[in-house]
Amino acid sequence: MQKGRRLPEWLKMQRASGENYSRVKRIVENNKLHTICSSGNCPNIGECWNAGTATFMILGDICTRACRFCATRTGKPLPPDPEEPARLAAGIRLLGLKHCVITSVDRDDLPDRGSSFWAETIRMIKQENPGITMETLIPDFDGVEAYIKLVTDSSPDIISHNIETVRRLTPIIRTKARYDTSLKVLRILSENGVRTKSGFMVGLGETDQEVADTIKDLREAGCSILTIGQYLQPTMDHMEAISFVTPGKFDEYRKMALAEGFSYVESHPLVRSSFHSEKQMNHN
Fold this sequence. Notes:
With 284 residues, the protein is α/β, with parallel strands linked by helices.
């Protein structure tokens, strides 16, 4: 959440409470699951958890990277928990989900960057929850095609990888990640016949032309679904937002992306990468 500055009216968020919110929170905690909703201080946690949806995070909750925009803990992760895929599959069943979103921390400490664990998790979720649809929001796996294919071969319905920001700002706000590596990942996904999605933040000092260039680069990489949202500083230790982009400007970006050929675009100040993910299932 942005600290120390008054937020504009359009960034006011729903309070995280309610019966469904409490139910989701209880199931997540009882099954020792991690969600990016809480780890990433997502502004939509109240709305999404009250709707019975959550974005689950695998491979623990400690990331090997330290991007300047992200609230997820960074450091030396614990070894992967072999029981986590089964617990997650059971938690999704208990929630009665028809659609789920899975993401993970970066695991640069693992020989395959966690890709085989990803494949096992997807397999377990499908086995435990027949008929479920799934979006996976994956890290870059250092752009290694063999690791990416482990995920594509497990056949989630949508595979997302976020480019996060424009080319010029990437070295400033991301650590090991590279703009062209992210484009490579999206290109590999698209070439393997996957419905591909990406997202980025604005309010970090980018220009309209840089936004337009990023949209074009993503489309040329084969991406068909796009999310654009306002960056909000999660803690005082993270980058401060340079500007608060108006809803009208977000609508301009949405129209720009649709004109480039994207089939579905979520562009609004409070949009995050998995927001309304279930609505994107029928857009090719």
